[in-house]
Amino acid sequence: MSKDNHWIAGINAVSAAVEHDAENVREVLLEAGGRNPRLAAIEVEARRKDIDVRRVAQQALDGVAGGLRHQGVAARYAAARTWDEHELPGLVEAAGGRALVLVLDGVQDPHNLGACLRSAAAAGVTAVIIPKDKSVQVNATVRKTSAGAADIVPIIRASNLARALRELQKLGVWLYGLAGDAGDSVYGLDLRGNVALVLGGEAEGLRRLTREHCDGLASIPMPGGFESLNVSVATGVVLFEAVRQRQAG
Ligand SMILES: C[S@@+](CC[C@H](N)C(=O)[O-])C[C@H]1O[C@@H](n2cnc3c(N)ncnc32)[C@H](O)[C@@H]1O
């Protein structure tokens, strides 16, 4: 487990951190003279939780935000805990037979990874697994796009994705790969038990070895006949199909 201080910026990212993880927010910087009511709400909530709040000039925010659109607010944040591969069994076991794991095999675009993490948090996933290489990592843009989810969802960076998939199988997790060319539809899958949903990157899709490790492959039907969905859209569709099934019993 490790923690490191970094700056997060933007209304969604800062308000999610202040709301859900206040103990890791070291200070909040607000643009002097800003009149946005959402900034005022962040200030009220931060002060209520005894977080230091400072009014600063726009240039100071530009400096800490490092190129991100900060919308008049940034926070110094001790990142939520990071997770090691060896913690995967504990996370799966704690889910009591209803683990829902998202595996992203080589997503390159930080906005896509951020959007996937946001959906993953909203769906209440057990963990997200990304490869340590051949994938964008959880950088400031990912954090911002995820609207705070990157600091809430357990994200495991696997040094060897195939090994992590075998580990999941040993733990009794069923692996479904999402591929547009698969014959079976996701709407025919039983997604109620221990399940990992495995999606590929923007250009390459699921890599051959990843595909071979899956217990089954399924597609999201696209009656319009388009080539594929954006990976974050496909992630949202399949995660919330799992949520629907789990809520139905
Ligand atoms: C943009 S797509 C990748 C397209 C890539 N050219 C390919 O050949 O797979 C990114 C990922 O989203 C998922 N995806 C996109 N559309 C899908 C669909 N209709 N059914 C199932 N998965 C889909 C797959 O996991 C895919 O690897």
UniProtKB/TrEMBL annotation:
Gene3D superfamilies with a match to the protein in the record: 3.30.1330.30, 3.40.1280.10
TM stretches of this protein: none
Positions of S-adenosyl-L-methionine binding: G200, I220, L229
Keywords from the UniProt entry: Cytoplasm, Methyltransferase, rRNA processing, S-adenosyl-L-methionine, Transferase
EC main group: transferase
Reaction(s) catalysed by this chain's protein: guanosine(2251) in 23S rRNA + S-adenosyl-L-methionine = 2'-O-methylguanosine(2251) in 23S rRNA + S-adenosyl-L-homocysteine + H(+)
Residue ranges of domain RNA 2-O ribose methyltransferase substrate binding in the record: 7-83
MF-aspect GO terms: RNA binding; rRNA (guanosine-2'-O-)-methyltransferase activity
Localization, UniProt: Cytoplasm
Family annotation (SUPFAM superfamilies): alpha/beta knot, L30e-like
Gene Ontology CC entries for this record: cytosol
Record EC number: 2.1.1.185
InterPro entries assigned to the protein according to its UniProt record, in alphabetical order: 23S_rRNA_MeTrfase_RlmB (IPR024915), Alpha/beta_knot_MTases (IPR029028), Ribosomal_eL30-like_sf (IPR029064), rRNA_MeTrfase_TrmH (IPR004441), SpoU_MeTrfase (IPR001537), SpoU_subst-bd (IPR013123), tRNA_m1G_MTases_N (IPR029026)
Function comment: Specifically methylates the ribose of guanosine 2251 in 23S rRNA.
Family per record: Belongs to the class IV-like SAM-binding methyltransferase superfamily. RNA methyltransferase TrmH family. RlmB subfamily.
Protein's recorded name: 23S rRNA (guanosine-2'-O-)-methyltransferase RlmB
Gene assigned in the entry: rlmB
